[in-house]
Write a structure and sequence with these properties.
Layout lengths: L1 H32 L2 E5 L2 H11 L3 E5 L14 H7 L4 E4 L8 H5 L8 E4 L33 H18 L4 H26 L6 E4 L5 H7 L2 E4 L11 H14 L3 E4 L6 H9 L3 E4 L8 H6 L3 H16 L4
Helix pairs in contact: 2-5, 2-6, 5-6, 6-11
Length: about 325
């Protein structure tokens, strides 16, 4: 009986010991392969993070697909989840009005905060007709830096630095992916510049003031119907002024963006017997666009086709 008890005890001890070894081994493996938790404020930031980090990170885009980001506010649930993040990436330049409030509640020893637009020379937005601030920051800067591929490349470099800081063992992986993204953006930039040489006109009438950096980069003149905020209501005098400009310059195309009401663009187009075309500021993707594999680069090439149509490109 005593031998039987000793034998059973030995078997149990060996079983528990083996299980403990397996648990320890699994824990060691998991600690070596644990993915970074990255939160991004809206689509362009998510695009950068996904392109560079790929499967080395769990990346959550805070703003849902199909939602216009200018006046979006994070829920308490998202703010709680953000506390567990390793990296928080936001555009800055006043785009995310809620960012400062959220960052104050983060443990900055745990979460690396990346203001992606840091180091980019900002341009000021046009004054609102009613004299109110744009609602982005006290300096009334235009926050839409990412619409320029040149600027998005700079934002990607800031994200790369943060990834290396938080996960140095994968530095080579991140640099390789950044280089691939950089080449895509360089080609996009080169293609736009080449096409712009053939534009016979340079004025673009946009649904809101989102293309200032794009216009500056490629020698265009932006005439926005609304200000920095797409929720701004233009006055009748403003609409009449744009209609006159279009007639004077023989402009036949008015641009509208995704997630922005086309009402005023359509009104102006009717007045000038023109046409409405899409110029997408890449604020975000719809669920259908996500499923189809559309991304920032394909959005910009679609924009280029419409710009060539509207401005009399060679193609």
């Amino acid at each position: 009986m005593r031998k039987t008890i000793l034998f059973v005890s030995l078997i149990l001890a060996l079983t528990f010991s083996a299980a403990a070894c397996r648990d320890a081994s699994n824990a060691a493996e998991n600690s070596g392969t644990e993915k970074l938790k990255i939160f991004t404020s809206f689509y362009p930031m998510h695009f950068i993070a996904k392109e560079i980090a790929q499967d080395k990170a769990e990346i959550m885009n805070m703003i849902p697909a199909g939602v216009e980001p200018h006046d979006w506010e994070p829920t308490l649930k998202i703010m709680a989840q953000l506390q567990e993040s390793d990296i928080f990436i936001y555009n800055g330049a006043g785009m995310e009005r809620w960012a400062d409030r959220v960052i104050k509640n983060l443990d900055l020893k745990k979460t690396k905060v990346v203001e992606a637009s840091k180091g980019i020379e900002l341009i000021r937005g046009e004054d609102e007709e009613d004299g109110e601030a744009h609602g982005h920051d006290e300096n009334d800067n235009d926050p839409h830096v990412w619409v320029s591929p040149v600027n998005l490349k700079k934002e990607a470099a800031n994200v790369l630095d943060a990834l290396i800081e938080k996960d140095g063992k994968n530095e080579a992986f991140y640099k390789e992916n950044y280089d691939k993204l950089s080449k895509k953006l360089d080609k996009l930039d080169s293609d736009i510049r080449e096409a712009a040489k053939g534009f016979k006109e340079n004025t673009i009438v946009t649904s809101h003031e989102a293309f200032g950096y794009f216009a500056k980069e490629y020698g265009l003149s932006q005439v926005p119907i609304r200000g920095i905020s797409p929720q701004q209501e233009p006055s009748p005098a403003k609409l009449a002024e744009i209609v006159k400009l279009c007639r004077d310059k023989d402009i036949k195309y008015v641009f509208v963006e995704k997630f922005v009401s086309p009402k005023y663009s359509e009104t102006i187009a009717r007045e000038i017997k023109g046409e409405v075309l899409t110029l997408n500021a890449a604020h975000g993707l719809t669920e259908e666009e996500e499923k189809s594999g559309m991304d920032y680069v394909s959005i910009m090439y679609d924009n280029l086709k419409n710009l060539e149509k509207a401005l009399g490109g060679n193609k």
